[in-house]
Structure formats: structure tokens, C-alpha cells
Amino acid sequence: MSKKKVIGIVLATALFLCAAIAPALPEIGIAGTKALIFTFAVLALLITEGLPAGFIGFLIFIMQPVLGLSSFAEAAATVGHTMFFFMIAAYAMSTAMTNVPVSRRILKFFIRHFGKSTKGLIFALCVSVAVVSTLVSNFPCMIMFLPIFIAFINLYRNEDERRQTAKPMLLLLPIAASYGGICTPIGNGCMMLGSSLLAEAGYRVSFPMWFCYGGPCAIVLLLVTFVIITKMFPPVELDLSDAAGFIKELDDSIPKKMAANEIITYVIIGFMLYA
């Protein structure tokens, strides 16, 4: 076990003990004091990765009634909450999407329509990120596309040109992922929470209806942001022969025939959007 993990476990244990015996702070009372210290203990474990994530989740469930923050019944009720299963489904979808070449297929489609120039290729990359981010959380989506962005940047042989083009591309990558995340209820954690709160209030919003509101906003924001950033940091035009090699390499990395797991993923996505 690494030194960092040991520190995390020791610190969390000390904080849990403090939460059990700490006096009440006058501003927030005994329950608020315990909840605050409990939160810091959990953060210590998460930041240092002192314990496996699944065990930390179980520990959070157990320690709430032990510290008197809630009863066992109340803690168990949160596990069966609709939001809990919705988040599991959303992150399971993120995992499935990262294991099939759907991101590269989407990128190939947009390159075919926009990839006639350097700016067009960059725009195709940004749109692809935004589209995938509608079904994959922002951070995993960025991880999926970062190697593709870096491969494109490395096509520049001149160091100054590479740096100049890297600025707008690496700015647009997280921005495009964020904009795509607002299009659906599972695009990011905030959308998941918002969808759950709306459902609890009696306003169940379907995927198509959510996109009717979030989609136009994301499209306008992406277009405006792309224009502004490429004006502030204009990318250097790339030799078309180098770009053709990049596109061919991308095309070769996509299986010509869909595997069974990829077909199953598309079917599940279709059912999810329909439901």
C-alpha cells in the first residue's frame, strides 16, 4: 500500500472518530457538525484512493447511522432512490460507449462533411466531441477524444505552428464536451440531478423534450465559441496530404463490420432514447 493511501486511511479514521465525539458548533448544531466532519473524512478517502471506490460507497452507507446522521432505514432508502439507478445506468452507458468505436464512426461522418480545410477538421472534431458527450459524461468523453486531438496536433512538423494550433484545439475540447452535456439528462452529473429533481416535482422530461431545450442552446453556443476562439487563436493551415494521412489512419482504425457488442450498445441507446 502506498504512503498516500496509508495517510488517507489514517486521516479518515481520525476524522470519523472526531465526528463521533465532536461537540456541536453553535452555528450548525450537532448534526451539522458531524455531517461536516463526515464529509471531510469521505473526501480524504476519495482523494487519496485509500480504499476501493465500492468499499467507500459501502462505508458511507454504514457510517451515517453509526454517527447518528440518519437511521438505517433512511440510509437504505437513498440506495433504492430512482436517481441512484439512473446514475448507474448513465455511467454504464459511458463505459459501453468507450469500449466500442462509436466515437470514431461519428468523427468520420463529420470529417466527411466538414473536413475540407484545417478549420473544418477542427470543427468536425469539436462537433464529434459534443455529440458523444450527449450520452457520455464530460470527463470520459474528453479522455476518449484527447488522443485523437493530440494525433492531429502532432501532424504539424514546425514546433511554433504546432503550439499555435494546439491552443484553440485544447480549449475547444472541454468546451465542446460541456456543451454536448447539456443536451440530454445523462450528459453530465448536473443534468442527471436536474432530471431527478424535476421528476420528483412531477415534471418528467423525456430525452427528446430535453434535447428540444438543450440542443439549440448547445448548437448556438458551440458555433459562437468556435468562431471566437479560432479568431483569437487562429490555427495554422495544415498540408492537405498530411490531413489525408490522418483521415486514412482514422478510417483504418474503424472496423468495417460492427461487432456484436457495438450492435448491442446501439440497440440499448435506441431503447433508452425511446423510453
Element layout with pairings:
Blueprint: H1 3-21, H2 29-48, H3 53-66, H4 72-79, H5 82-98, H6 102-114, H7 118-133, H8 138-153, H9 159-181, H10 189-200, H11 207-232, H12 240-252, H13 260-274
Helix pairs in contact: 1-2, 2-3, 3-4, 5-10, 6-7, 7-8, 7-9, 7-11, 8-9, 9-11
Walkthrough of the structure:
This protein has 275 residues and is mainly alpha-helical. It has 2 domains: 77 residues; 187 residues. Helix content is 77%, strand content 0%. α7 runs antiparallel to α8.
Mean pLDDT: 80
Helix content: over 70%
Largest sheet: none
Number of domains: 2
Q: How much strand?
A: under 5%
Helix and strand composition category: mainly alpha
Low-confidence stretches: none
Characterize the overall form: elongated
Radius of gyration: 23 Å
Number of strands: 0
Number of helical elements: 13
Q: Summarize the helix and strand pattern as letters.
A: HHHHHHHHHHHHH
Task: Offer a quick outline of the entry.
This protein has helices at 3-21, 29-48, 53-66, 72-79, 82-98, 102-114, 118-133, 138-153, 159-181, 189-200, 207-232, 240-252, 260-274.
Supply the key terms.
single chain; mainly alpha
